[in-house]
Specification:
The complex is a heterodimer of chains A (about 270) and B (about 525). Chain A is α/β, with parallel strands linked by helices and about 270 residues long. Helices cover about 30% and strands about 20% of the residues of chain A. In chain A, the strands form three sheets. Chain A has a five-stranded parallel β-sheet with strand order 7-6-8-9-10, with helices on both faces. In chain A, helix 4 links the parallel strand 6 and strand 7. In chain A, helix 3 runs parallel beside helix 8 (about 235-245). By secondary structure, chain B is an alpha/beta fold. Chain B has a domain at about 1-35 and about 315-490: Alpha-Beta Barrel (TIM Barrel), CATH 3.20.20. Chain B has helices at about 10-35, 40-45, 65-75, 85-90, 100-105, 115-150, 170-180, 220-235, 250-260, 270-275, 280-295, 305-310, 320-335, 355-370, 390-405, 425-445, 455-480, 480-485, 515-525, and strands at about 35, 160-165, 185-190, 240-245, 265, 300, 340-345, 345, 380, 410-415, 505-510. Chain B has a nine-stranded parallel β-sheet. A two-stranded antiparallel sheet of chain B has the order 1-11. The relative contact order of chain B is 0.14. The chains are: A alpha/beta (about 270), B alpha/beta (about 525). At the A-B interface, strand 2 of A face helix 16 of B.
Chain lengths: ~270, ~525
């Protein structure tokens, strides 16, 4: 059977009947709560592709704002055949499997240095991945016997991170960025990758991995890092990624010949700016 | 209520917990009494009225208080405090004022000396007079608050409703804070820019750019205070203003809070050490001074126990919250704070997928309530298990509010269903306040009907947490608090006594150390 016979490629939202297209949205308009407000909400809902749109709830929020809840049928379709997803390029391993793989391939512990950089003081993300306690029922990387974790905590300056990574002979550097105001997370990430490139000039730098709720995983190249983890990432995903990437044959060979000043082809040119 | 309260806690166990907390804290207090820091000395100059920055130094952002303290340190050291050399120079060097002296320090034309004998006496007298003027202003602000509360009134309900604004721009914060007050906020907290805790100076002036928050500056304090007074008169209740006395400038920010009539300050005994990697000694010395200022200013402190539960499991680590509350209480009392000023923190952070999670939350919240019957207690909403499912988050916040009502919490930080998703939208805040109002109006008096049976899960759990806290306090008291912090007793982080940021700003007192602020504050009202 072809996939198209088991699953339609064109879908609509599902309310309580196939293809009814029903959605629910809520929003606020900067208008006083009066008869005109409801019409304004109708108009916005129509422009969003909802027809008919039912404004089921309106509420004044102070003298000059109104809040709406709207249910309605949306006219747009989704074409599943054009949806792009980043497939995970590595298999998920258990802690045991990761430990075994490290022992076999490296015959030493894998070293991970983690930090929140810049002014970001939110260690929730990095701690969820690194602390023994972990996240979503999974233990963090500190729990993996074959991984040595150096968690530098919050508000680490980039030069400090680079020198610690060198000193600890880090295989990977994990950086968490929660604060996104004025794109701080992007700025900080670019600054970090540029600093590592400069410091490891010619030799293979550690794997750079960033994570945070507002990152787009597709931005890795542009930011000069090797991988980006988004919201909801669990420690085992990170551990599996590290094992997959760092223990692969070609990676280790490149690292062994790191003295040769071969250009690092994995980097996109725009990632090196700044 | 009987002496033992609803949970029938054993009064001997409670007394033992307090004794152990004192035993753990007292050596640290002794250390704090015999040391000063650059920030304590700068706070002293701020109380004497020195403001502004040196336009000719670095980027022009360095405050005069930093320039003067650093120069005194270079020339004669800080072991005797900044007051003796500064007021000796002021008295004998032909300067018009403290500000004039600072400018000459900036120009490099001042040579400080440590006065002795009658010169030292005269310098002390002059310093006490100047710093006394700042303390008088703090006292006046406290009386002004009392007057306004009497005239406008306190919130009509308990807990007080605490809302956060955080735009980064003080001129955006002001209309948001006023809107929040009109919507029902009794307390408005202006979150600081995340970088501020590690700045070793307090920025100056009205600021319009911060990261995830607005810089704490004296001018920002003044602007927001005026705005809340204005809206308070309009809504007919005194609206309290909160900021953060934490990080490397804790003493100075506490002084500015007193000078500008802030009402509550976040001020935890160990948060900076554990979560910001600030040196333990620096933190405890700075903290003692800042708490003495808060005590004098009639400011309610808020402690940060909620933070433990965001990194540790809220069930497994429940007793660490109790331990921290007891330590915070001990440090606070020693610095002169009264029970009504202790907004000890705790939070609703148990995994909602855990069976009986709500009953466990009730047990923990009631334990805090009964251990500290006269403290306002600050009840903090769920953050760790807010997933982005805003509908589920709204329900969770409702249950959080319910625990607050059932256990008589004093200050309730309004939970946002968009926690960990986006900065709350206007509508999110409105919905969150509706949630609070519904719960408080539907069952605000439920505490009086709520008597968990002695052998039930709630009372049993509360007693167990107290015992675990006593066990941990025993270890800490035996080991020493500094060692316990270094060993990673609080969370996984290990913070050695000589590690962390800001240690180079710590100075041991020499014989004859003099700080007029400390003398005036220790002498009390």
């Amino acid at each position: 059977m072809t996939p198209s016979m088991t699953e339609p490629t064109i879908v609509r939202p599902y309310g309580d009947t196939t293809d009814d297209g029903m959605v629910q949205v809520s929003f606020t308009l900067p208008v006083p709560h009066d008869a005109r407000a409801e019409g304004a909400a109708q108009q916005l809902a129509n422009k969003m592709g909802m027809a008919p749109a039912m404004v089921v709830h309106t509420k004044a929020m102070g003298p000059s704002f109104t809040f709406f809840v709207v249910y309605g049928r949306v006219s747009h379709l989704v074409d599943l055949s054009t949806v792009e997803v980043i497939e995970r390029e590595f298999t998920l391993l258990t802690a045991k499997e990761v430990n075994l793989a490290i022992r076999k391939a490296l015959r030493r512990k894998l070293v991970v240095v983690g930090a929140c950089i810049g002014t970001d003081a939110h260690t929730v993300g990095i701690d969820a991945i690194l602390n023994v306690k972990g996240f979503a029922g999974e233990k963090g990387l500190e729990y993996y016997r074959e991984i040595r974790v150096v968690n530098l905590g919050a508000q680490v300056f980039v030069p400090e991170l680079v020198s610690r990574a060198r000193k600890e002979r880090a295989d990977a550097v994990l950086v968490s960025q929660v604060v996104t105001q004025k794109d701080a997370h992007l700025e900080n990430t670019r600054e970090m990758s540029a600093a590592f490139d400069a410091a490891y000039d010619g030799s293979r730098r550690p794997l750079l991995v960033v994570g945070g709720p507002r990152f787009d995983p597709r931005m890795a190249g542009g930011l000069g890092v090797d991988h980006i983890f988004g919201k909801g990432t669990t420690p085992s995903e990170v551990a599996s990624y590290l094992a997959h990437t760092l223990l692969s044959k070609e990676h280790r060979e490149v690292r062994r010949s790191a003295q040769d000043p071969a250009p690092d082809t994995r980097r996109s040119p725009e990632g090196v700016r700044r | 209520m009987s002496q033992q309260g609803k949970l029938r806690l054993d009064p001997r166990t409670v007394a033992k917990a307090r004794r152990l907390a004192a035993r753990a804290a007292d050596p640290v207090i002794a250390m704090a009494r015999t040391h000063t820091t650059v920030s304590v000395e700068r706070a002293t100059l701020r109380l004497a009225g020195l403001t502004g920055t040196d336009p000719g130094f670095a980027g022009g952002d360095t405050p005069w208080v930093n320039r003067v303290v650093d120069t005194v340190r270079e020339q004669v050291g800080l072991e005797h405090g900044v007051a003796l050399p500064v007021w000796h120079e002021l008295r004998t060097g032909g300067h018009g004022s403290l500000a004039d002296l600072a400018e000459k320090v900036g120009a490099g034309s001042v040579r400080f000396a440590l006065p002795t004998g009658r010169d030292a006496d005269r310098a002390r007298t002059a310093a006490a007079k100047a710093v006394g003027a700042g303390i008088t202003r703090v006292d006046r602000n406290r009386r002004e608050r009392d007057r306004l509360v009497k005239r406008l009134g306190d919130p009509r309900q308990k807990p007080w409703i605490y809302l956060i604004v955080a735009t980064g721009d003080i001129y955006e914060d002001i209309p948001q804070a006023q809107a929040a007050a009109r919507e029902g906020a009794d307390v408005v907290a202006v979150i600081r820019s995340t970088g501020q805790s590690l700045l070793d100076y307090v920025p100056e002036g009205a600021t319009r750019q911060g990261y995830a928050g607005t810089y704490a500056t004296q001018e920002n304090f003044r602007l927001m205070r005026a705005a809340l007074d204005e809206v308070g008169a309009e809504v007919g209740r005194y609206v309290r203003l909160t900021n953060y006395a934490s990080g490397l400038c804790m003493p100075e920010i506490a002084a500015l809070a007193g000078l500008e009539r802030l009402d509550m300050m976040l001020n935890d005994s160990m948060y900076g050490i554990l979560f910001r990697d600030i040196n333990p000694r620096r933190t405890f010395i700075d903290q003692r001074f800042s708490r003495m200022v808060h005590a004098r200013a009639g400011i309610i402190i808020n402690t940060g126990e909620d933070n433990y539960l965001t990194t540790a499991d809220a069930v497994e680590a429940a007793h660490t919250v109790t331990v921290s509350q007891l330590l915070n209480e001990r440090f606070a009392k020693e610095a002169g704070l009264a029970d009504w000023q202790l907004g000890l923190g705790h939070a609703f952070e148990i995994n909602p997928d855990l069976p009986d999670s709500f009953r466990l939350e009730l047990a923990h919240a009631l334990l805090a309530r009964e251990l500290f019957p006269d403290a306002p207690l600050k009840w903090m909403p769920p953050t760790k298990h807010m997933t982005g499912d805003v509908f589920r988050g709204y329900l969770l916040d409702g249950f959080f509010n319910l625990v607050g009502a059932m256990t008589g919490q004093g200050i309730l930080l309004v939970g946002m269903m968009t926690e960990a998703v986006v900065t709350p939208l206007l509508s999110d805040r409105d919905l969150a306040l509706q949630n609070v109002r519904y719960v408080l109006s539907a069952c605000g008096g439920l505490a009086e009907d709520f008597h968990p049976p002695r052998d039930g899960l709630i009372a049993t759990r509360a007693r167990q947490v107290l015992w675990e806290a006593v066990d941990l306090l025993t270890d800490i008291a035996d080991d020493g608090l500094m060692n316990a912090i270094a060993d990673g007793t609080f969370g996984i982080t290990k913070r050695p006594v000589d590690g962390g940021k800001g240690l180079d700003g710590v100075v041991a007192h020499a014989d004859g150390y003099y700080n007029p602020a400390v003398e005036l504050l220790e002498a009390g009202a």
